[in-house]
Amino acid sequence: MCSSDLTGETPDFPALPLASCFAAGLAALSACAALIARERDGGLGQRVEIPLADALLEGSGILTTQVEKQAPMRGGVFAPGLYRSRDDQVMCFTSGVFRHLEGLARMSGNPAWTKDGTLDWHALRTDPEAPARWRAKLVGLFATRDADEWEALLRPAGIPLARLRTTREWLREPAAAAAGCVVEQDDGAGRPVRTLGPAVDFEPATPVSAPRGFAGVPGAPPLTGIKVVDLCRVVAAPTVTRLLADLGAEVIKVDIDPAQARSAYDEPLFHVYLNRGKKGAILDLKGPADRNRFDALVAGADLLVTNVSVGRLPGLGLSADALRERNPEIVVAYLNLYGATGPWADYKGYAEIANCATGVSSLTAGWATAPSGAPPVNSPPWPYTDSLAGVLSAFGSVAAVYDRGRRGRAYRVNTSLAQTALLEQMPFAVDGADVDPYRGRDGSSATYRIYQAADRPVFVAIAAGDLPEALRRLGAGSADDLEARIASHTAAACTRAHRFGRSAATPVEAPSATMAPDGPWARRGLRIERPSADFGTVITQAPVARFARTPAVAGDTPRVFGQGQPDGWTR
User: N or C: more exposed end of the chain, with fewer CB within 10 A?
Assistant: First the structure.
């Protein structure tokens, strides 16, 4: 247990309830989808199963995807990292596209960097020594101002940055309350406590002409017949539409030509996984012809999903009024960093920024002790906040589509990375006079932790009433002997020895081994291996939720984005 004034020291066993969060989110999403299938299929219900272990694959699916012929992803070239300010605070700076770097140079008083070669997009992408030089430049730059000054200077200019905060600091942040991320409640004894608000926000409904019901083929995947326009970038928002496509929706992804993005990575990022089962169209929304094509897509869609920042929505014709004018019945799913309201609503950023600002990184990742220039590595090292935000927004989207079909109301559904990150901290997201937000931060003990067995690590969870029998099975005299005794057994032997009563054990699997052809998830039907004309053999996970009657189906592996097809779409 760490005291509340110590932040950043990595606990032995991070206590974020990620498996529970993913299972709950997927269960809510799947239940809403099953309700749509029931309405469509004449009242036929079904069983939906989502095991905890399977659900957690949603948090690591990007990392477990294997692509034979994809070019190596050139990560880190824009020097995302943890940088120390003049007052020795840790800040997370991420830079997914080159305009973030140009904005940083301009706002910090160094516009010449874009002309003298200090900042050169081609060099950062191709010169193996350029990223290190740029990172060293940033170490010196960020040391010239205090952290609060950097936030006040850069965030309004659209540059992704956040100071490392604890969970308690985030719960007391006025902007978090203004966004609805944090709410104040009575603890039952007349004392106020601050805790997390709703994970998904449904804006007041707009009545439509009449409930439209649900079309589609009986027995087909639940969202068959639902049309979705995907105006999304990076990870969280494309996860929404990937889940909807798995559930049978027709999804059309709209984006600019990847060559125009000037991003840190080859776009679209994680394309073969996030965009499976989708059609695609390269459109410039500022050009009249492409704009007309996009407007036609919106007019015929049931749902629009976007993570365009709130300040840019009106200029792109995506304000609520503009969308309703084209399609009064459309449901809009909107994802952003800090929420749709409040003074931080237009700030831009990624999951690392949300984790840094809300306390996740302080709880789990040891960032407070990191040297300036260190890379931002989550613990566990997955894009889990992105993925969970996608699950939550997909739930809200399907719930809104269900309500529109039943009662004739159209919603905008808002989901933020910050609110998702606070949900991941449920056990600690309470702040009151007598509350220690770090209670249970390190859940490890001699009977609940990862041990090194003779051949590989193994996780052991021994219930208190089972301890005498567990010790007997291992030949240990006391709990203090467990480490030595487990080290003398294989992980498989330890697993067998602890699977009784209320106890359990399991070998520790690395993400790279999750999709092994002889692994447990392959045996459960969650491994998909397919040939691709563009990418060679592609291995990825199947849909996690198991519908007894209307199963979800993983869509086809997409072509290279922008690869033309006779009908004008990419697939």
Answer: N
CA distance 354 to 337: 7
For residue 102, CA distances in Å to 99, 116, 147, 149, 350 come to 5, 13, 20, 19, 18
- From the list 568, 564, 543, 18, the residue with the least C-alpha distance to 249 is 543
Q: What are the tens digits of pLDDT across the range 385-444?
A: 999 999 999 999 999 999 999 999 999 999 999 999 999 999 888 888 667 766 666 667
User: Which residues, other chains included, contact 11 with Cβ-Cβ below 8 Å and sequence gap of 6+?
Assistant: 2, 363, 364, 441, 442, 443, 444
Paired with 306 in beta bridges are 231, 334
Q: Which token pair is 176?
A: 């978090």
pLDDT in tens, 101-124: 999 999 999 999 988 888 888 888
The predicted pLDDT at position 305 comes to 97
User: Scanning the structure block, which residue is given the tokens 């592609």?
Assistant: 538
Sign of the CA dihedral running 144, 146, 151, 152: negative
* Closest to 230 in 3D by CA, of 268, 200, 266: 268
Whole-model pTM: value is 0.92
Radius of gyration of the chain (CA): 24
In the structure encoding, which two tokens stand for residue 370, read together? 């990191």
Residue type, 110: N
Contact 571, 279 (CB under 8 A): yes
200-219 confidence digits (pLDDT tens):
999 988 888 878 788 778 89
Listed ranges 253-262, 332-341, 518-527; the one with the highest mean pLDDT: 332-341
Contact status, residue 368 vs residue 362, Cβ threshold 8 Å: yes
The phi, psi pair for 516, rounded to 5°, reads -60, 145
- Cα dihedral value 181, 187, 192, 197, nearest 10: 10
Q: If we measure between CA atoms, which residue out of 53, 448, 46, 70 comes closest to residue 222? A: 46
Mean pLDDT of the chain: 88
Count of H helices and E strands in the chain?
Answer: 22, 23
Per-residue confidence (pLDDT) for residue 471, from 0 to 100: 93
